[in-house]
Amino acid sequence: MPSFQDLLKQTKTQISEISTDELSQKLKADPSLRVIDVREKDEQERGVLPNATLLPRGFLELKIEEAVPDKNQEVVLYCAGGTRSALGALSLKNMGYQKVLSLAGGYNKWANESRPTVKKTFLDSQKLERYSRHIMMPEVGEAGQIKLLDSKVFLIGAGGLGSPTALYLAAAGVGTLGIIDNDVVDRSNLQRQILHNEERIGEPKVESAKQTLKALNPDVNIITYRERLSRDNVMDIIRDYDVIVNGCDNFPTRYLINDACVFMKKPLVDGSIFRFEGQVTVFQTGKGPCYRCLFPEPPPPEMAPSCQEAGVFGLLPGIVGCAQGIEVLKLLLNIGDPLIGRLLIMDTLKMKIREMKVRRDPSCPVCGDHPTIKELIDYEWFCSMAGGDPLKKPEHL
Ligand SMILES: [Zn+2]
After folding, report:
1. H or E segment at 356?
2. What is the rounded CA–CA span in Å between residue 373 and residue 361?
3. 333 CA from centroid of ligand 1 (Å)
4. How many angstroms does the Cα of residue 292 sit away from the middle of ligand 1?
């Protein structure tokens, strides 16, 4: 029976090693080289090589085909001192991997030579449990969940659309949610605005929203803005956010937030509802159209639909707000096909969903080739002339 030392000696004759110097050169020439850290989590917490894939030795054979599907791709394994990575390299070689190298001296030698390392964040056991259904999906994983927890999403309106979006984004662990709403909870909101409840009637919607969301997930930082979005504050507010979600269906806000997002190149997840019909799309400058590509200017006041509240079927904002929330998560995780350049139209009375292609208009006044709108416009005149005044007291559908 060979001893462990014999086994190791024999293994090293069957695999190829790479020195820290050679790896350093290789990484400089090709920063996308696949480097795999096979140490345990508590060792990885102290630091890892930049861009390393973390695959503890116990999971190496189980997960390597998912991580590196191409068996001809060059792979460098490292552990603490070069032993576990040597055994792992032999195993991968036996699985058909053609170019596997084991880092001689491992992480310890690399770090002792003051070569670049990075600190990794990991989720604690409570978070691992809370987000376990995300973490088990390769499209999200622990790294994706950490990304969500580090993300900031700005929601316009804590009403019908904002309610489901905010609830599900908080549940999903989006780390920071900013919510702007100037309104107070009214009994007539409760038919659909599920962030609020009977006890909160008369309270500011943003405060009510904060209480509900904090109770659902204390991990989430809720920033409230009890004000109306205007030309004067919009840029400062959205600057820090990764994705903007519009849940406020009035023309002045729609044009203001569209233009601000074009200027700051922020993705805008847009939703609207009317009676039984809902629409969802994503505007992202550089990748697709903006709202003005579809509707360059607000209609003249006399042509505008009444700014008074139209009826809304109870669950409709739930469907539309959730579709917006899904788009937000996809954008944050950079997965799937976002609704950029596509307008989803849902007729819930017939329960039919249509998709319309929408293209960027090169003559768009704000995102076109020769834009004429270069600063923000407050369309407050628009609704006040039309009779209603939703900006002063926005009614978030
Ligand atoms: Zn445009």
Report:
1. strand 352-357
2. 14
3. 25
4. 5
